[in-house]
Write a structure and sequence with these properties.
Structural class of chain A: alpha+beta
Helix content of chain A: 40-55%
Number of strands of chain B: 18
Number of domains of chain A: 2
Strand content of chain A: 5-15%
CATH topology of the largest domain in chain A: Glutaredoxin
Strand order of the largest sheet of chain B: 2-1-5-3-4
Shape of chain A: globular
CATH architecture of the largest domain in chain A: 3-Layer(aba) Sandwich
Largest interface: A-B, 30 and 33 residues
Strand order of the largest sheet of chain A: 2-3-1-4-5
Radius of gyration of chain B: 25 Å
Order of helices and strands of chain A: HHHHHEHHEEEEH
Shape of chain B: globular
Largest sheet of chain A: 5 strands, mixed
Distance between the termini of chain B: 40 Å
Structural class of chain B: alpha/beta
CATH architecture of the largest domain in chain B: 3-Layer(aba) Sandwich
Oligomer: heterodimer
Radius of gyration of chain A: 18 Å
């Protein structure tokens, strides 16, 4: 049934590169623990998704992880998938060791975020990044992932880029390049 | 709402004063005032998520236009429904929806029954106003029962609501955001590899052609035109109360005789009746219940006629599978009897036989292709005839598909004479007719089980306590001083409540009937689209009217069933019954 199912799906699948590898027993236990910790709290599913992604060795939510979360939280699989694909924070594809998120909101755009994005991609060797695909680019050595976001809400500090979760503000291409080189050497942001 | 403490609200709609209960939506107030407000995402009793914006009206003093399907009335409110601003906004909303909708109405299965199409006409859309912004999404045509074409989806959310709220299956939800928002199963998998039970309620509520049944009318026409094939047809009880509606007659039209005539005009070699097999089901299931009750078997026993329900319990409550009756559904009993008993009697090569069933159901397509449903083939093998494996039932068509075939063949349905079914698999009783309504299998089983157990006829045939549309209904039958508590549930949400009781060990019942769809088969996922409770009530009335008009109303009184046991099967629950009429279930992992 499932074989027939996959074969007859025509056109392009909407989630490309989503990983099917099973999660570790450790992570499975962590999922159960955070599900128990957040149970009955508002936004519990968001918190468990966030924690699971953070604990995952590849900083992403695999199919197996989503299944484990659905089971632990007694939520339908479709619901967990719905939430995980709605928020740009969650990644269903494996991410690099360092995650660079370039803000493409209006304020950042007018202050040169496209240049920041292009510069970063060129620096990391990305060739076929298409912005309209909601794509992410990960370097072959899995060191860096570059993504975009619609807006961080930090417009007064435009243009901004998030590097490993920390917002870098009023950036120029050279400042961003220096920051990336610093973390690449294992230094601080 | 409790009638005794309703407070009333006065408001005006287009200058006309109207009084409605407080808490009513503006939409309801407009309807009360005789104004028809267009709606797309709103569907009474299913969803109202204000996602489409077609129902906007102007409210005096409000800054922006108001969505009438969710905004409630307040005293003195002045509503304007047909101002320049309202009409322009509504048309723009529809034009925006059409920007990302394909222009292939002519080749769409919903051509003529599409709500978006008629909405475009009603709003005066005369141009392709906006360019497409959405990429063409993937089509999901993997399923045996349901096809998804997200390119036609307008994201109204009715399917998501019916799947989650009515059925508690939640096979689909919104995924992604912004321009990439789509209705999707988990991981955008094919629907057929998810928890979907193929009930087809989504295909009933979908306003467009985004969710449809797998149409198999071409395949059936091809077999009908093939001189080597012997194509016979069976029709489910609920079809006679809905086929007329699908062909433009008023809802609740009872068209048994015209339906038989139309099937004959289409070229079916024999026009048989699933009701014959429904009577057979009652013989087996009634006997199984009495056997379980007297031998300490697993109780409550739950009916097994509704294939969406079977997939549901196999997926969500596999530990309760021993509660399911082992009886196949009437569709499948018919198939295995037709390709053994009737094929031999008529001297027809079973491998050249094609059994087509007309069902109010999309899940029946899935059921017919369950790999274990080849018992006639296995029986012939035991007789020394080794054929290439064939299914007991070859095609299960929905009411909608049969209506399509009748229209395509140019049959003027209203002018057809009333004709009967062919013998012997066309004979049935009133007990079989009521299989089409929630509570009907229970009532039919009671009519026979009571008499089998006591040797006396039931005091009254009509079991009013299990009739109606209440979600769960229960009754206590008195069988010669011994009480038998029974329950009836329709929709999977209500079935879940009963199953939770069984799992908790608190269920007081001996026998439970479950039907997947609202109202039972008469509200099935293969019935005419855009259902509401009024239409379901009219179909229900037609079914009980048919029962009342028949002379034989108890399954064990069906002479063709008596003969089938006398010359072929032996006795209920006998060896051959087990081979041909019973089945087993498996845990469904998805």
């Amino acid at each position: 049934m499932s074989e027939l199912g996959t074969a007859a799906l025509s056109g392009k699948a909407s989630v490309t590169g989503a990983s099917a590898r099973p999660i570790s027993d450790d992570l499975r236990k962590q999922v159960a623990a955070s599900a128990a910790a957040y149970r009955d709290k508002p936004g519990a599913l968001l918190s468990v998704l966030e924690e699971t992604q953070r604990l995952d060795p590849n900083r992403h939510l695999s199919e197996d992880a989503l299944r484990a979360i659905a089971e632990a939280m007694d939520e339908p699989l479709s619901r967990v998938y719905s939430v995980a694909t709605f928020y740009s924070y969650y990644s269903l594809v494996p991410q690099g060791q360092h995650v660079i998120v370039v803000c493409r909101g209006t304020a950042c755009h007018t202050r040169g975020s496209l240049g920041l994005l292009q510069e970063t991609l060129a620096m990391l060797g990305a060739e076929d990044f298409r912005e309209d695909e909601e794509a992410s680019f990960t370097t072959a050595d899995r060191k860096f992932t570059v993504r975009t976001v619609a807006c961080f809400g930090q417009c007064a500090l435009a243009p901004v880029v998030s590097l490993d979760g920390v917002i870098l503000s009023r950036l120029t291409p050279s400042k961003l390049k220096a920051a990336i080189e610093r973390v690449a050497r294992g230094g601080k942001r | 709402m409790n009638d005794s403490n309703v407070t009333l609200v006065e408001l005006s709609v287009d200058g006309v004063p109207v009084t409605v209960a407080s808490g009513s939506t503006i939409l309801k107030a407009c309807q009360a005032a005789g104004v028809s407000i267009p709606t797309l995402c709103h569907l009474e009793g299913v969803s109202s998520n204000a996602s489409c914006g077609v129902c906007v009206v102007e409210v005096e003093g409000a800054r922006s236009l108001v969505r009438s399907c969710v905004q409630t009335v307040s005293p003195g409110m002045q509503v304007r429904t047909n101002t320049k601003r309202v009409l322009e906004a509504r048309r723009t909303v529809v034009e925006l929806l059409l920007a990302n909708h394909p222009d292939d109405c002519l080749a769409c299965m919903r051509n003529g029954s599409c709500e978006l199409q008629s909405m475009a006409e009603r709003m005066g859309v005369r141009r392709k106003a906006f360019p497409r912004t959405r990429k063409e999404p993937a089509q999901d045509s993997a399923g045996l029962a349901i096809i998804r074409d997200n390119d036609k989806c307008i994201l109204c959310g009715r399917c998501v609501a019916v799947c989650r709220e009515t059925q508690t299956v939640s096979a689909i939800d919104f995924a992604g955001r912004g321009i990439r928002t789509r209705v999707a199963p988990f991981m955008d998998k094919a629907l057929s590899s998810t928890v979907c039970v193929s009930c087809g309620q989504c295909t009933l509520v979908c306003p467009t052609g985004a969710l449809t049944e797998r149409d198999e009318t071409d395949e059936v026409f091809a077999d009908l035109f093939d001189p080597d094939k012997v194509v016979v047809v069976q029709t489910a009880p609920a079809i006679r109360a809905s086929l007329g509606e699908a062909l433009g007659l008023p809802p609740g039209s009872l068209v048994t005789g015209k339906m038989a005539a139309a099937l004959r005009r289409l070229g079916f070699a024999k026009v048989f009746d699933t009701q014959f097999a429904a009577d057979l089901t009652i013989m087996e299931e009634g006997s199984e219940l009495l056997h379980r009750a007297s031998s300490g078997g697993v109780l409550p026993m739950i009916t097994s006629c509704s294939p969406g329900w079977i997939s549901f319990i196999e997926t969500f409550y596999p530990s309760l599978l021993p509660h399911l009756s082992t009886c196949k559904s009437p569709q499948q009993m018919f198939g295995s009897v037709a390709k053994t008993y009737w094929a031999r009697k008529a001297g027809v090569d079973p491998s050249k036989m094609v059994v087509v069933s007309i069902m109010p159901c999309t899940a029946k397509k899935f059921e017919a292709r369950r790999p274990e449903m080849r018992d006639a083939w296995a029986w012939w093998k035991d007789q020394g005839q080794d054929h290439k494996p064939f299914f007991d039932v070859d095609y299960a068509l929905t009411t909608r598909e049969l209506a399509r075939m009748i229209r395509r063949a140019g049959i003027d349905f209203t002018r057809l004479p009333e004709e009967g079914f062919d013998d012997p698999l066309g004979a049935s009783t009133g007990a079989a007719v009521i299989f089409g309504a929630t509570g009907g299998v229970m009532e039919a089983a009671a009519r026979t089980a009571y008499e089998l157990a006591t040797g006396k006829p039931l005091p009254t045939l009509e079991l009013e306590a299990v009739r109606g549309f209440e979600g769960v209904r229960e009754a206590a039958l008195d069988i010669d001083g011994k009480p038998l508590r029974v329950a009836v549930a329709h929709t999977l949400k209500n079935a879940r409540a009963i199953l939770d009781g069984i799992a908790a060990g608190t269920s007081p019942y001996a026998f439970v009937e479950v039907m997947t769809c609202p109202g039972g088969c008469l509200g099935g996922g293969g019935q005419p689209v855009a259902p509401d409770w009024e239409k379901r009530e009219l179909r229900r009335a037609a079914i009980y009217r048919e029962d009342r008009g028949l002379t034989e109303r108890k399954s064990h009184d069906n002479p063709a069933i008596k003969e089938l046991y006398a010359v072929f099967l032996g006795k209920p629950l006998g060896h051959l019954s087990h081979e041909l009429l019973h089945t087993e279930y498996a845990v469904r992992k998805v």
